[in-house]
Amino acid sequence: MSEIHRITVDPEQCGGRPTLRNLRIRVKDVLDLLAVGASPAEILEDCPVLEMGDIQAALEYAARQSDHPVLHVA
């Protein structure tokens, strides 16, 4: 089931960057933690306001952002 509804964008918060549930936790922050090897359990322990659905939403958001055509200019 999609969790993308957890992603919020508010121009007045975090410079308009995507956040999770209007919290001041950017999607990028969660993705950066995962990229350096933090487990979802570690992230949830360090930031108890987050839920597993938030981590899934961040991953889903990243997957959607990376799915675009690449144009090559000759």
Automatic annotation (TrEMBL):
UniProt name for this protein: Uncharacterized protein (DUF433 family)
The record, for InterPro entries, names: DUF433, Homeodomain-like_sf, WH-like_DNA-bd_sf
Which is a Pfam family this sequence falls into?
DUF433
